[in-house]
Amino acid sequence: MSGAQSGRSSAVGFAIESAFRSAPLTNLSGNVYNAGIAATNPMRFIGVEPGGGYPTKPTKDVASTEQDGDFEVHRITLTGKLYDGKDSWKLDPENAYYPLLGILGRDVESTVTSGVYDHVMYAKFPHYMPSFTQEESFGDATNGQLSTGVCFNEITLNHTAILMMEANYYAHRQVPNRYPAAGGVDTDYDFTSTAGLLPSQLGGDHTKQVKINLSPNYVDVAQTNCGNGPLVFANMFNGNAAGFSSAFVTLNDNPITADFLPGFSVKMTRDIERNMVGGSGYDASVPVAGGFSVSGKMDIIFRDNQVIQGTLANCKFGINMLFRGAQIGSTGYYYEYELYLPHVKFMDADRTRADKTMTVGGNFQAKKDPVLGYSCQIRLRNAFTHAALAGQYPQDGAGLGGWLSTA
């Protein structure tokens, strides 16, 4: 087979859109563009694990009865296209920024020192959700995929031996694909290392051409000299939330002794509906976002019966932990990821009576803390400032398609 892609890692990049489903573009020369604008809508690339991306799943209706004079069922009618994708990668405080902003909707930034920034991110009413333009570069970057109107609907943080992140997302326009061009003529559009027309459905004007970015701006944090990567489970510290200076878990706001086993997960889900509307063609139209929830599962090395008792009494647990990675340049500060769940209720607390390590824990649901106003807070410390990002709301203006930079 000519041009096989085996053995080559794929890259995925995201840029916040100034307008839903319209790709931000940088002119290269003439009518040729790349996706993303460094000054206002930076495209940030992630090296992703194999097995992700968008499966090609158009909606096709098959007739149940004969319609054209034959005894076989022949009518197979294209009625819609939905683009549901997912990717996973090794989490660090740089490459997690866009996906977390995409589902949590706000980033309250502060400057730690020159070139070092803290980003406090959480979902709180009113909810926000920016849309992204996504570029996928397959293998040797000869072929790829360009999607617009991408919204994150689920993020899973897996605290394994190496921190992993999985993101589920929806796109609303995509090439390679077929769209009506000028005059309503169905036209095939591709996305490769050779410039090709960008359809008007993705922000084109029938003259602009796009191609794969052959010099992508990767944001994965480099490994340290020891080869441990930026964030491994062993580098876990007490978090900064009140009451957690000596413990990772509190029960009714009182610290309890608890050691976590690698493997616990936290899932953030936003309910999104995509509906076909008149004139939207085969693609879904504007998405509508509903409820937001945080859940997960964890196992704690068995100490006593406190977790079981607290679960049976429907008590409030709190969870706060910090992961510290490589130093940011020579600043004396480090890349950090901090998770804070202020109000957790365990749905079960199964204790395993094993002949080796005994554990207690199970599935939990995080609920909005009535004082803080959120169910999950993430803090990232990195070298990225949000000052240049598109789509900010200067004040509360609830809705889908933007993000908030204040509390």
Explain this structure to me?
With 407 residues, this protein is mainly beta. The chain is 4% helix and 44% strand. It has a 19-stranded antiparallel beta sheet that branches. The model is unreliable at 395-399 (pLDDT under 50). The protein has helices at residues 97-104, 306-312, and strands spanning 11-16, 25-29, 32-35, 44-47, 58-62, 76-81, 83-90, 108-113, 116-122, 132-138, 143-159, 163-171, 173-175, 177-180, 186-189, 196-197, 209-210, 236-238, 249-251, 254-256, 264-274, 287-301, 317-327, 334-346, 350-351, 359-366, 377-382, 392-393, 403-404. The longest helix has 8 residues, at 97-104. It has one domain (11-58, 76-395).
Count of individual beta strands: 29
- How far apart the termini lie comes to 54 Å
Note the total helix count: 2
Helix/strand/pairing category: mainly beta
**Overall structural domain count:** 1
Q: Per DSSP, what share of the residues sits in E-state strands of 2 or more residues?
A: 35-45%
Rounded to an integer in angstroms, the radius of gyration calculated over CA atoms is 23 Å
The percent of residues in helical segments reads under 10%
Assembly type: single chain
Mean pLDDT: 88
Shape: globular
Low-pLDDT runs of 5+ residues are 395-399
Largest sheet at a glance?
19 strands, antiparallel
